[in-house]
Amino acid sequence: MRMRYARMSGLVVALAVTGVAAAPATAQRPAQVAGTSTVTATVANGLADELDTALTDPRLTGSDVGLIVRDPAGNVLYTRNGDKRFVPGSNNKLLVSAAAVDGLGLNYTFTTSVVRSGTVTNKVLNGDLFLKGTGDPSITAAGYDALATKVAAAGITKVTGGLVADDTWFDNSRLGTEWAWDDEPYSYAAEISALTIAADSDLNTGVVGVSMGPGAAVGKPAVVTLSPANDYAHVVDNAVTSAAGSARTISVTRAHGTNNLVVTGSVPLAGSTSSSLRTVDEPELLAASVFRAALARHGVAVAKPTRTGTATGATVVASSQSGPLSSVLPYFLKLSNNGHAEILLKALGRKVSGQGTSAAGIAAVGTFLTANGVDKSVLNTADASGLSRQDLVTPAQVTKLLTAVKSKSWFPTWYAALPIAGQPDRLVGGTLASRMAGTAAANNLHGKTGSLTGVSALSGYVSNKDGLQLTFSMFTNDYVAPSVKSLEDTVAVLIANSGGSATTAKADVAKLRKAQVVPDDPRTPVDESALECSWVGRC
What we know:
By secondary structure, the chain is α/β, with parallel strands linked by helices. The chain contains twelve helices and 24 strands. The strands form seven sheets. Strands 3-2-23-22-21 form a five-stranded antiparallel sheet, with helices on both faces. 50% of the residues are buried.
């Protein structure tokens, strides 16, 4: 696992900040907002005082901050810039995932099929074999091997035509609106396709795993392998093995417009093997490459080269069904998988309007939001994942959605799929696995993170000391500090402690501060596979 280093800023204790100018907007108190709160005014005002103090953190100087807290009925307990628009980052996934689950259903499945044209005579298919996808983000190399087994079992040993990769269930727009060119090689900006393959146990699609280790002797080329094994991506190995104990500088990128994975730098002799995910161009052909190799292993020879196209035959030779959408949700939401978001957006558009496009999906999201009391006229949705800076939301509308969906039959499954604070298992805690551990928010707060350079967000649900589940949404835009994540944690912990003693709240904030301090070495290792893209400075 490749490691990078990031400097962690010390947490300012929210109840002990002095001499710092308050954030520009004045927060509204419960007496100033509509509705009668189920939380007592005394508790709400105490929380407001603490949140006001927390938001004087110097890291927010010159930035835009929005925060809103609602009681279980949706009444506002606290708001600062609640109606202001912010770039949400991956908080955009809250809107899209809720709409997708509502529109597709928790039992929705994806089908990958093998279709033939022509006729079969004496085990010879006189025609083409088509591999057709509908967006399954969970099908792996093993899944394609199982499909190849079925083709062989159907009595086909030779195909006189070619293998045709059909991803026309979706359109051919591979990237989202205003995605940055320099994100192109990295897994969080993988191309979108209806025919793809999950490269690893996290179900990352549109990518290959690049494993890089030392050669047999100093000066020898580094050993580089791909997962899944394929002949579609091409390794350009310019990396060498260096002396034991030397610095590890090996890295890999993908050359623009190609599938050349260029490996450079050095790896120390007897050093460990690291792995990185890198995108491929036209990922449907990666899936076809893996499937074609599986056909060969099972005795099915294909005469002509692989190409892209639309299935013209009507005879299904074999098919594979994904698990239900409910089984994919944790990989999507907990790991903040951008590819899954974009696939679900196009799948939603396809189901609602017959068009597998982002535009059709965005229209369906808008219809869902309106039906659930969200004013879509003050929002802008440009993609599903939140990688686009054209996405705009407000804390008020996000918390309106969070309140509205609690009545949905699918809510318990969706709620469980959100990251859970302080839970170390990646498929439980997700992007919140290492945050707020040992505090009142741990194993309590279910929420969604969001991260782009200069953009940070945290929205979700947390129960307070009175047992009332509160909803909240916090956005920070245009900050220049290394991170404001610990400030978000402070805000969440203060909300979780509302209704309890001030002493307990102070103790929890002190735990956060202690957890963030690195006394001997200012560099704290960060596992980039567990983080959203901008946490390692790439978007």
